[in-house]
Design brief:
The chain is mainly α. 67% of the residues lie in helices and 12% in strands. A three-stranded antiparallel sheet has the order 1-2-3. It is elongated and about 55 Å long.
Length: 112
């Protein structure tokens, strides 16, 4: 059994979250858009840091910018975690499945 969480847009305006072998859960388009936007900003910021390194910018400046990228990624993770708890985990508890909770614990361990 995989402990990876997958997000899929099946073209119905909702994004579904599931772990390998589970039925899937639905996330709001607003949350999905917010996460995608946050990731796009973090990617853009990381590209800027890459250019800083290529240009030979001061290491201290690069480290500060890397810290900002890390913070953006961590905050995106928090948004995903909150959404996962309020949808996928609630659904799993209501259906009596402890498998989803076990997988969430493993994912949190890796994320932290």
């Amino acid at each position: 059994m995989s402990d990876k969480i997958y997000f899929h847009d099946h073209g119905d305006g909702q994004v579904h979250c599931h772990t390998h072998g589970s039925a899937g859960h639905t996330h709001s388009p607003e949350t999905t858009k917010a996460v995608v936007n946050r990731l796009a900003r973090a990617i853009g910021h990381l590209e800027s840091v890459k250019k800083m390194v290529e240009e030979g910018r001061d290491c201290s400046e690069v480290l500060v910018q890397l810290a900002a990228v890390r913070s953006a990624i961590n905050n995106t993770g928090k948004v995903i975690l909150k959404e996962h708890l309020s949808t996928c985990i609630v659904d799993a508890i209501e259906s009596g499945s402890s498998e989803e909770l076990d997988e969430l614990n493993r994912a949190i361990e890796r994320f932290l």
